[in-house]
Amino acid sequence: MKVKIRTKDFRFSLPVPIGMAGFVVQMLPEKLFEEMRINTPEPYDKLVTKETINLIVKECMDILKENKGLEIIHVEAADGTFVSIKL
Question: Which domain of life is it from (predicted)?
């Protein structure tokens, strides 16, 4: 998986092996999940937890490996911010 983030002042690129995706989810701070819960409507906000996301990643591992190269997130903002996540 390749994660790329680009703004006017900042460039970030991180290759993440698919097998380590669960580990990466575990390393994310809990504050990130709390912020996502705020923007998630009821009753789904209770599902936005580190454990749930990790379970989804583990269950989808076969599909992730089969679709190598697929761009799952591509966002370009008007201010030049760019985010891309490819499998």
Answer: Bacteria
